[in-house]
Amino acid sequence: MRGRLRWVLIFWMFVVSAIAYLDRVNISIAGPTIAREFHLDNVQLGWIFSAFVLGYALFQAPGGWIADRIGARATLMIGVIWWGVFTSLITLLPPALSGVLALLVATRFCLGMGEAVVYPASNCVVAQWIPSSERGVANGFIFCGVGFGAGITPPLITYVMANYGWRWSFWVSAVLGLMAGGVWYFVARNTPRQHPWITEAEANYIESGLPEPEVQSVESKLSWKAILTNPHVLAVTFSYFCYGYAAYIFFSWFFIYLKDVRGLDLKASAYFTMLPFLAMAVCSPLGGWISDRLTKTRGKFVGRCVLAAVAIGFCAIFIALGTQVESARIASVALAGGAGALYISQSSFWSISADIGGKSAGAVSGFMNMGGQLGGTLTASLTPLIAKHYGWTASFLAAAALCAAGSLAWLLVHPEGKRS
Fold it and tell me: Model's pTM, two decimal places?
């Protein structure tokens, strides 16, 4: 009987993914309290938000390179220890310390460096453990952790802050990460044949479903020149830049937008902030399932590329509509629809990068994710600046415009990265 060990690893990647987003979104909830304690304005708070995403972006490709060489198992364990340390370190900085803003920025930058390994390493797991026909569902479930982790963050962090203070919310996040990393190291192996629990039937099934050798380029790992000059990789990376710009409005500023701009109280803001993340949690695996179904019946171009283009296009529409609604609650629902549509496309990015990368899936997906996180870096700092000079509606419309551009970029992508 064929086993299901591969799905145990995918489930634990979901858990690690959820905790990673708990670690990064907690500061958007604690942000106003931290800003008051450290005497920061919104623009300075934006620098702190951007510092994390910049560190996360710049170390995507190196993180993927490391995962390709030492394996996802050790890479993720090192990563969770690193981010546990730097999640906690921010709580030790006294507000009266000279140069505290620079230290806050540096601490968040280093946290971003540590978290940068998560998704390139997860794509190594997918490339080694998941047959091509199941990669949409696998990636969808992994990235369901993004919505789940970010979704539980507002009520959890609000509760911990109200009862124990904002510092405890960061300590809880760090401990959960270390626990998840320990379990991961126990249950994971880099390849199916290395795992003592694998059945012969499951190992054969996995190996028979991996991409063909000419797609994997088995003779060697892809060079950086081959990755950086591949037009399909560049198109996917540009689209992920646009994707990241839109996504980080929700991760960085949505709670503050509902509270300070739309006028919701703290409790209502916390609960309505959950909506986009719950939409992400539902739509990420749904998008993966749809992608795999379409891929089987209509081919990879429709199942991966056309689906992603349509989904990101609908995100642009929902975000634009959300800015035109007077009711804060209805606007939250419309914007949540945009977040959900965005995450229907999520598995396409990672499935395509795994197919193009093959044995270099970590490096290819790391480069792609660097583009996405640079988009997030830009929105974390640019959103309050646009809002300051042109209003919050303009901030969200900028994200909608980039989504439209990212949608069109998918139509230039060959599903396996071929140049012809």
Answer: 0.72
